[in-house]
Amino acid sequence: MDINEVPQDPLEYKDRDKLKKLVYAVGKDGRYEGVGSVGWEAENAATRQAWQAIEDELAETERRVRSGELSPLVYFMQKKLMDVTLLAKYAGKWQWQVKRHFKPNVFSKLSQQMLQRYAEVFGITVEELINFGKSNQI
Amino acid sequence: MKVIEYTHTQHAHCESGVTANLLCHQGIDISEPMAFGIGAGIFFAHLPFVKVSGTPGTTFRTWPGAIFKRVAQRLDIKVHTEKFRSPEKAMAALDEALEAGYPTGMLGSVFYLPYLPEAFRFHFNAHNLIVYGKEGNEYLVSDPVIDYVARIAPEDLVKARFAKGTPEPRGFMYYVTDVPSDIDFKKAIAQGIRQTCFFMLSPPLPWFGNKAIFLLARKIKDYPKKLSARKAALYLGNIIRMQEEIGTGGAGFRYLYAAFLQEAGEKLRRDDLSEMSVELTQIGDDWRNFAYHAARQMKARQSDIVSFDELSGLLRICGEKERSFFKRMDKLKL
Fold it and tell me: What is the 3-state secondary structure (H, E, C) of B113-146?
């Protein structure tokens, strides 16, 4: 790739275009140089798609939390880009225990201490965690 | 706290960038491509059974930690490395290292680094950065993938250094304690090239090295038959991201390695290495071409068998050219 071919396709999405990352390209004299690039169309499309997939899944989860199928735990887990394996590690629980907590009726009986631990993992308050998806909340 | 005179330089990749910056701080004149090449950073692997957030794992580089370690060994540089059980001890050790005047490299999760654009912040735990000082309650950060120096609050740095998942950094940190007065680049370059050829050509398993490029090509051919259009698009997107998105310097580290070969050719006065650099640049262009077409197919979201066949073919071209390339490079007498 020649220096004048380094793509500069900005992606104004989640601050992607704030970072000029370095790519290596060949200058006029045939020598390699580092050049800053705000993005490349092909890469931008892949970045967007990866986030879109997460957001689609999150919207579906939110719907299921509101309808009472799932506990708010699933919503915040996905919002923080975690999966069950990772959440279990952060919470210091087995995966099957975390999966049980995904059931609204089990979740509603969790101890204050356990709720506190989950809230800390997500960086939110216990109130935010337990009230999410209730009808009087936005 | 003592102020360390430190110069931040932006690089393409986090680990080779940290390596170059730490060594430059000690007065060794080393570029990122040189660190990457000596550390045998270039690689390829495709692991269909290791799912990373639902998509099969693909990598264009060697495993985390290897580049720094190999460069230190090959240039006979003394380093101090340490892992920790508790965050308190890890942060105290960092403060001590800074007090002693060492810019300190460390592993951390990208997710907990607020100074990075959100677009990049996934739970990727093997990111490398340097902390070179403390001002007030904040740490001064030199992260090689960004073109500015940053600051981070101690609580965020703790989260990043003690992120859970795979791999777990466990506060891993490293700094250079002593460098030899005379550096033998020639020997180190030869060792790096030799090892790269070995890893690319010799693994008898289909998931590693050059063979894995053909494995991925076969898999892509089957995507329209085996996957939904949505899944196929996500799988393709993941390959593109691994190749281009996160600090590869373009074309999945191929340009970075070509830059190394060019510099090595000049250092050792070897025209054959310079010629190999030109050849690898062209192979890099083939990888870019593959990514470009993969992105088009991804956006179209159609299980169009013809285009998946074509994509598979484009990838095979990269694989065949690289096989020939690394075989010839392996025969060079260095």
Answer: CCCCCHHHCCCCCCEEEEEEEEECCEEEEECCCC
Range of B144's domain? Answer: 14-30+78-178
Please give, rounded to a whole number of angstroms, the shortest distance from the CA of B270 to a CA of chain A: 15
B207–chain A Cβ distance below 8 A for any pair: no
Residue found under tokens 């006065």: B269
- Asked which of B148, B178, B208 is the last residue of a domain, the reply is B178
Are the beta carbons of B132 and B6 closer than 8 angstroms? yes
What is the ipTM for the molecules in this complex? 0.94
Instruction: Report d(CA B195, CA B189) in Å as an integer.
Output: 10
CA distance A107 to chain B (A): 23
Does the distance separating the beta carbons of B244 and A42 come in below 8 Å? yes
Which residue segments constitute the domains of chain A, with CATH numbers given?
Answer: 3-39 (no CATH), 51-131 (1.10.260.40)
Closest alpha carbon within chain A to B162: A90
B82 membership: H or E segment, kind and range: strand B78-82
Interface A-B: count of C-beta contacts within 8 A: 122
**What tens digit of pLDDT does each residue of B47-77 get?**
999 888 789 999 999 999 999 999 999 999 9
Using DSSP, state whether A2 is helix, strand or coil. Answer: strand
pLDDT (0 to 100) of residue B157: 98
Please report whether residue B1 resides in a domain: no
Search chain A and give the residue with CA nearest B301: A49
* B196 and B42 Cβ atoms separated by less than 8 Å: yes
Distance between B50 CA and the closest CA of chain A, angstroms: 14
